[in-house]
């Protein structure tokens, strides 16, 4: 953590997660892309459950023993009740700001190999949406770190979070390296995660983030190809091999969120960044074995045991 972060004596929140609360409808399809047809018979079925990027990062951090608090806009609708129930059942505190447009929702098409195509309902947000500044400031004052989802309206909370002196992280997901919407997040966080899926040159994008922003660590995840790690603007790009999942891969939904949670839990404890990446890789690999219709994340003991096993095996070579 940075030297100007609030002391442990002043905080009761290890990580404040902003944004990314919502509901997904999971549809398992026979293949992706889905062939055009008048109809498809879907098995194992269609299920709606709470859990979008902020929910899953909060869950991952909570399961790893960090005191986690979630803040977002939530509607007074059935989807909002699913979000509230998710947090109650998991024991994760939620500060919800009433949102007239309703709770964020998406449809996830999941193929047999676990790949996912997400369709987000863009009507659930407006350009003038804001998290109340006084609420952001009050929660940030109690926090040691903040993870900021790229959902509207979290970019507007970045100045208040920086004023509070907390370290910041964000996940740019499938940013193409040029969309201006992502730039406040990319340039405003100390730790930046993103997917390499839409990048022609991941290293160039990562170095641009480090050069133009405040990031000391940039991580680009690449699925089965592992991840790329940049520890400081002038450092060498490091490839982090993928970790073999402990069970068959059934769904990639939430793997990036799990990676971020595992990485951050280690980073906030002061671990070296390569060790943090290993924690993230183990957490992400576990997430790929969990069906999207079920809510789960790796626990602290299991994560530590697998990291220790892999570290010992690597040392043995």
Keywords:
alpha/beta; four-stranded mixed sheet; 317 residues; 32% helix; disordered N terminus; nine-stranded mixed sheet; UDP-N-acetylmuramoyl-L-alanine:D-glutamate ligase; single chain
Summarize the entry for a quick read.
This protein is α/β, with parallel strands linked by helices.
What does this structure look like?
The chain has 317 residues and is of the alpha/beta class. The chain is built from nine helices and 13 strands. The protein is globular, with a radius of gyration of 19 Å. Residues 15-295 form the Carbohydrate kinase PfkB domain. GO terms for molecular function: kinase activity. Keywords: Kinase, Transferase. Pfam families: PfkB.
Average per-residue pLDDT, rounded, comes to 92
Major sheet summary line: 9 strands, mixed
**What pattern of helices and strands is seen along the backbone?**
EEEHEHEEEHEHEHEHEEEHHH
C-alpha termini separation: 33 Å
Domain Carbohydrate kinase PfkB: 15-295
GO molecular function: kinase activity
Keywords: Kinase, Transferase
InterPro entries: Carboh/pur_kinase_PfkB_CS, PfkB_dom, Ribokinase-like
What layout of secondary structure does this protein have?
Layout: E1 13-18, E2 22-28, E3 46-50, H1 53-63, E4 68-74, H2 78-90, E5 94-98, E6 104-110, E7 116-120, H3 133-141, E8 143-148, H4 158-164, E9 167-171, H5 183-188, E10 191-195, H6 202-212, E11 217-221, E12 227-231, E13 238-240, H7 255-268, H8 273-287, H9 300-316
Parallel strand pairs: 1-4, 1-8, 2-6, 4-5, 8-9, 9-10, 10-11
Antiparallel strand pairs: 2-3, 6-7, 11-12, 12-13
